[in-house]
Amino acid sequence: MRNQYSLVVSSSLLQALFTLWICQMKVRVVCRKIYDYIRYDLKEIAFPSSLPDPPHIKKRRILTWEERIWVLKRAARLYAASWVRDIGPDLRPNDYKKDEMTDETNGEKKTTTAKEPSTLEDLAIAARGGMETLRPALQRVYMTRASAYRDALKSFIEGYQEGVQQVMEKEKISKTQENADVQKK
């Protein structure tokens, strides 16, 4: 009896070990597949590789960190300079004072033309003042646009009504002419 009992125990133990081993292998396979997906496929999905360059194209050399920093600084300076040019004299009054001084020393007197600042300059000045000054400036812009749209819509409706009236008058005239022709016959 002992032999039979030990065989049953050993066979059930072997089955348990075998199923444990299979589960372990399944876990390893699943982990390996997840690892491969993250390593290869996900990288390709997030950052797809482009087609290879034609043979006549020469690859550029990789910039060093110092060169990258220099390029970034240069681009930032150019970008900032472009904003200064776009903003105008209201935000840079000192630069224009220097220009006026140099013009006066040359013996030329400038005649100042009083022109109204553009909408962009108004918004730039208001933005410099913060949200309290920016909100009324934006409201002015939106109100002028709204009034322009309203006026355009009114003129369109008036023109449309005039066109409808002209068509109705032509129909009345043609009907009266037809009635007159019928009565003559």
Summary keywords:
single chain; 185 residues; flat; mainly alpha; signal
Describe the protein in words.
Helices cover 79% and strands 0% of the residues. The chain has helices at residues 2-46, 65-87, 93-105, 119-129, 131-184. Helix 4 (119-129) packs antiparallel against helix 5 (131-184). The chain is flat, with a radius of gyration of 42 Å.
What layout of secondary structure does this protein have?
Blueprint: H1 2-46, H2 65-87, H3 93-105, H4 119-129, H5 131-184
Brief digest:
The chain has helices at residues 2-46, 65-87, 93-105, 119-129, 131-184. 79% of the residues lie in helices and 0% in strands.
The pLDDT mean sits at 78
Shape: flat
Helix content: over 70%
According to DSSP, the number of beta strands is 0
Sheet having the most strands: none
Strand content: under 5%
